């Protein structure tokens, strides 16, 4: 069984549950995807399924060889699997693998914010506004100790590039799965801008 699917984020909206509760939801256009490769413990050392998504006209020769007898697919991603019952190469996967009420994890790349200071990037409070501090309102303050250790420690929160990184949002509830329209509606927010590529996988049950 394939544990996930690829798709694109289409935006957010609000829908109402049968009891009248307003639910903020994200609309995902997911699939159809094709199984392009099977990873086995005997050969690669682990079990996984590689899925391909979104047809394209621009493939080089190695990519065309890898996707022999399959549509020319633009994106290839792996999903780890456990146990037997792996699908065959060429199997088509759509949103029918999910059911309403099921929990999923969504992986995407967050919006890039460029270079950001510590107030915006790490939610620092900033310096005092009075007592002669005229230019320290959004400064980080001291970033090191004195003689010991005499250096700035790795991982110190400072200004720098913000966003544009892989983010996983866990345990989002599936509100609706429409296989005929390739739409998956999940409750809550999903990282990334509209049209962002997303990986949707079945959530791992909490202990």
Could you explain how this protein is built, in words?
This protein is mostly beta strands and 207 residues long. The strands form three sheets. Strands 1-2-11-10-7-12 form a six-stranded antiparallel β-barrel. A four-stranded antiparallel beta sheet has the order 5-4-3-6, with no helix packed on it. Strands 8-9 form a two-stranded antiparallel ribbon. It has two domains: 122 residues, Beta Barrel (Elongation Factor Tu (Ef-tu), domain 3), CATH 2.40.30.10; 62 residues, Double Stranded RNA Binding Domain (2-Layer Sandwich), CATH 3.30.160. It is 5% helix and 42% strand. A hairpin with a 5-residue loop joins strand 1 and strand 2.
Q: State the low-pLDDT regions, or none.
A: none
Broad CATH class of the largest domain: Mainly Beta
Number of domains: 2
The CATH architecture of the largest domain would be Beta Barrel
Number of helices: 2
Q: Which strands sit side by side, in order, in the main sheet?
A: 1-2-11-10-7-12
- Fourth-level CATH superfamily of the largest domain: Translation factors
Radius of gyration: 23 Å
Strand content: 35-45%
Element layout with pairings:
Layout: E1 4-16, E2 22-30, E3 33-39, E4 48-55, H1 61-66, E5 73-80, E6 92-93, E7 103-109, E8 112-116, H2 118-122, E9 160-163, E10 166-178, E11 183-187, E12 197-202
Antiparallel strand pairs: 1-2, 1-12, 2-11, 3-4, 3-6, 4-5, 7-10, 7-12, 8-9, 10-11
Report a brief summary of the structure.
Helix content is 5%, strand content 42%. The protein has 2 helices and 12 strands, in the order E-E-E-E-H-E-E-E-E-H-E-E-E-E.
């Amino acid at each position: 069984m394939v544990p996930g699917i690829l798709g694109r984020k289409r935006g957010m909206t609000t829908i109402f549950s049968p009891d009248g509760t307003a639910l903020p939801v994200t609309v995902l256009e997911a699939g159809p995807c094709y199984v392009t490769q099977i990873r086995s413990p005997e050969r690669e050392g682990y079990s996984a399924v590689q899925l391909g998504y979104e047809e394209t006209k621009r493939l080089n020769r190695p990519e065309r060889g890898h996707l022999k007898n399959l549509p020319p697919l633009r994106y290839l991603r792996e999903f780890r699997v456990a146990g037997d019952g792996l699908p065959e190469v060429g199997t088509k996967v759509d949103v029918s693998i999910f059911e309403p009420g099921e929990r999923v994890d969504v992986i995407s790349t967050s919006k890039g914010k460029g270079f950001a200071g510590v107030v915006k990037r790490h939610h620092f409070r900033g310096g005092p506004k009075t007592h002669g501090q005229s230019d320290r309102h959004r400064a980080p303050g001291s970033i090191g100790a004195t003689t010991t250790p005499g250096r700035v420690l790795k991982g110190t929160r400072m200004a720098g590039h913000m966003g544009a990184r892989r983010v996983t949002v866990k345990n989002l509830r599936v509100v609706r799965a429409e296989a005929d329209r390739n739409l998956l509606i999940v409750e809550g927010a999903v990282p990334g801008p509209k049209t962002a590529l997303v990986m949707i996988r079945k959530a791992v049950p909490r202990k």
